[in-house]
């Protein structure tokens, strides 16, 4: 089995096998894609994508994989701009084709597409969401897809041949917004977080055949965070952010290693990490939740103390959590975006270094990414703010591509892949 490669100092990622990259945290090491681009500059190619989908593209070798849900009208999602916040979700009138697409990284040519199901979703979604928001993942030999709207998890080889598929059930989401938790993979297991408003659980599937390895019921309501595989020395923990708590499971048997409780609201953003911590946080529609630095010494059940230091917690800040966009670490600093405001924290102490508004920024749903020198934030109108990494707030670039963007970008082999509502764009010199 071929698995994703490690980052060699000074090199670019060869593969981008899952949501937020090889380590699941959005960090890309030394710069591996252009810092400046526009609709006319450094766009190597663009390719139209059918239907709707906010799932992130992934890259294995020279192949790009992404999912889409396609109806006869080629319906696309809407953004928050234009008052879509106030619109109520509807179910489609016709069955959707749930597809996996494969493109050539070099020129964007479509190599193949595979329809994994043609089915009518049971539940409505918000017009800003899609029925293909969960990002696929890969172990280097197979691509694993999850369509939560119909409960389908499937494995396809790199040439488009289906290996297996299983039905884990579809469930209603909070406020009818729809689903969004992407897949995670570790050591032969595929992890699915299914936090919903009816019957929440996390399940591990055998990646070779789709059989259930273990399953744990959860008390959580609907959440959209993606499971995070946290490796600390000889300990690997599957971190699942829910509503009211965060649980660290043993990825091999599903036993609870630790649990952090007394956390308000549900999680939308996924964790960030450095060598010593994971950083978790959330915010609700009307309020901003906590930002928490969890240390590797956490164990057992821990209740977050909102006034005093909590054992296993390096530091925490109330009313400082991220919005939809997951935070990112570059060097000694953590970057958290919420409501168009970027805050920077010292990863070791939690000291807030700065807090500044991104001028003219629209809603930001795509998760942040960073190299050694820059932090990148993509708003829904296609403007990417390039921020100088470090303790001083400095915008060093603003790059515009005209499309609607909620999907989190991918980076591989010197290319930045931006998925818009209509097209996939390859940014490369």
Can you offer a commentary on this structure?
The protein has 429 residues and is mainly β. The protein has one domain (43-427): YVTN repeat-like/Quinoprotein amine dehydrogenase (Methylamine Dehydrogenase, Chain H, 7 Propeller), CATH 2.130.10. 0% of the residues lie in helices and 43% in strands. It has no helices and 33 strands. The strands form eight sheets. It has a five-stranded mixed beta sheet with strand order 14-15-16-17-21, with no helix packed on it. Strands 1-33-32-31 form a four-stranded antiparallel beta sheet, with no helix packed on it. Strand 28 and strand 29 form a beta hairpin. The protein is globular.
Quick structural summary:
The protein is mostly beta strands. It has no helices and 33 strands.
What are the SSEs and their pairings?
Elements: E1 43-48, E2 58-60, E3 63-70, E4 96-104, E5 110-119, E6 137-138, E7 142-147, E8 152-157, E9 162-167, E10 184-186, E11 189-194, E12 201-206, E13 212-217, E14 228-232, E15 235-241, E16 243-249, E17 256-266, E18 272-273, E19 277-283, E20 288-295, E21 300-303, E22 313-317, E23 328-330, E24 333-338, E25 341-346, E26 352-357, E27 369-370, E28 374-378, E29 383-388, E30 395-400, E31 410-412, E32 415-419, E33 423-427
Parallel strand pairs: 17-21
Antiparallel strand pairs: 1-33, 2-3, 3-4, 4-5, 6-7, 7-8, 8-9, 10-11, 11-12, 12-13, 14-15, 15-16, 16-17, 18-19, 19-20, 20-22, 23-24, 24-25, 25-26, 27-28, 28-29, 29-30, 31-32, 32-33
């Amino acid at each position: 089995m071929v698995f994703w490669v490690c980052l060699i100092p000074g090199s670019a990622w060869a593969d981008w096998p899952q949501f937020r990259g090889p380590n699941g945290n959005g960090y890309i090491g030394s710069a591996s894609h252009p810092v400046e681009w526009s609709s006319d500059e450094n766009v190597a190619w663009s390719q139209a994508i059918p239907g709707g989908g906010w799932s992130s593209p992934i890259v294995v070798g020279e192949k790009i994989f992404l999912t889409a849900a396609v109806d006869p009208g080629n319906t696309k999602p809407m953004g928050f701009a234009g008052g879509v916040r106030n619109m109520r979700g509807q179910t489609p009138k016709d069955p959707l084709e749930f597809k996996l697409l494969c493109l050539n990284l070099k020129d964007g040519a479509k190599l193949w597409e595979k329809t994994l199901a043609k089915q009518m979703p049971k539940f409505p979604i918000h017009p800003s969401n899609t029925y293909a928001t969960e990002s696929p993942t890969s172990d280097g030999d197979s691509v694993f897809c999850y369509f939560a709207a119909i409960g389908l998890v499937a494995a396809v080889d790199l040439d488009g041949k289906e290996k297996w598929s299983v039905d884990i059930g579809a469930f209603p989401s909070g406020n009818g917004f729809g689903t969004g938790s992407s897949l995670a993979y570790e050591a032969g297991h595929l992890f699915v977080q299914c936090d919903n408003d009816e019957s929440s659980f996390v399940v591990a599937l055998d990646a070779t055949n789709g059989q259930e390895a273990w399953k744990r019921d959860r008390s959580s309501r609907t959440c959209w965070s993606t499971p995070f595989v946290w490796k600390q020395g000889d300990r690997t923990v599957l971190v699942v952010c829910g509503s009211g708590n965060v649980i660290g499971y043993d990825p091999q048997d599903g036993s609870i290693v630790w649990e952090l409780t007394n956390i308000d609201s549900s999680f939308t953003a996924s964790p960030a990490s450095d060598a010593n911590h994971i950083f978790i946080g959330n915010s609700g529609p009307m309020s901003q939740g906590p930002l928490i630095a969890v240390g590797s010494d956490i164990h057992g059940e821990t209740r977050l103390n909102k006034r005093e230091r909590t054992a296993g917690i390096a530091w925490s800040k109330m009313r400082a959590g991220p919005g939809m966009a997951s935070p990112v670490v570059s060097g000694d600093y953590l970057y958290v975006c919420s409501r168009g405001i970027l805050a920077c924290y010292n990863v070791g102490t939690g000291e807030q270094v700065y807090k500044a508004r991104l001028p003219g920024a629209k809603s930001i749903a795509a998760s942040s990414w960073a190299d050694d020198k820059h932090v990148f934030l993509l708003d829904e109108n296609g403007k990417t703010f390039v921020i100088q990494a470090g303790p001083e707030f400095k915008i060093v670039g603003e790059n515009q591509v005209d499309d609607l963007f909620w999907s989190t970008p991918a980076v591989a082999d010197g290319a930045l892949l931006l998925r818009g509502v209509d097209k996939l764009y390859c940014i490369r010199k």
